[in-house]
Amino acid sequence: MNKLLAECIGTFTLVFLGCGSAVLATTNPDLGPGLVGISMAFGLALIGMAYGIGAVSGCHINPAVSLGAMLAGRMPQGEMFRYWAAQVVGATLGALALVLIMQGKIGGYDGGYGANGWGTGYLGEFNMFSALLFEIIATFLFVVVILGATGKGAATAIAGLGIGLTLIVIHIVGINVTGVSVNPARSFGPALFSGGAAMAQLWLFILAPMIGGAAAGILFRTGLLDAEAPETDVRVDAST
């Protein structure tokens, strides 16, 4: 249960702080954090949780990461399903906390809660194919970084920093495309309370990250990205 609690808290934090920064930007564009600020909020929240709960659960806080880890042979399937449940609960609670806070805004609030999307009226107005392709590629690269940074021979002490910085860059590139998911749980919570188009388009932000995460996990399962063992100095005694 300690692992599941850690995953719930970690995903709650990612949604509450990351999507919270996007809600603030929507509420007051002049005082909000802007694109780079939102990107940093997601990445820094992940870095904080990596060091806060990494030793407990590995800080997946993302069903696509758990899928990749399972397919790479780093966690059993049953545990992956339990992680998924904890992550969805955490994301839902994080979005709910944002809803409750924004309902207390004097003058009212009728904006969204950081839900992902695509198409006319959504940020850069990219089509479905662009959204699907970006989410698959971005999640694949993200999970490759995670599995590589936490694998054998990696400098795991600074893994959280590298993973968080990668998430920042992914957001800088992709916010105008989809708002950036690369995480089905992160998409589910805000979509649940935003409703409408966010719920109708949620399928893409479940499917695409899972495809990307699975591809990364399978790649690591093959051993093609395993670190090579250091060469040993073999000497032969010519007198024998």
TrEMBL record:
Keywords: Cell membrane, Membrane, Transmembrane, Transmembrane helix, Transport. It is a multi-pass membrane protein. The chain crosses the membrane at residues 35-62, 83-106, 126-147, 154-177, 197-220. Its main location: membrane. InterPro entries: Aquaporin-like (IPR023271), Aquaporin_transptr (IPR034294), MIP (IPR000425), MIP_CS (IPR022357). The keyword Membrane applies. SUPFAM superfamilies: Aquaporin-like (SSF81338). It holds the Pfam family MIP. It comes from the Bacteria. It is found in: Cell membrane. Belongs to the MIP/aquaporin (TC 1.A.8) family. This is Aquaporin. It comes from Sulfitobacter pacificus.
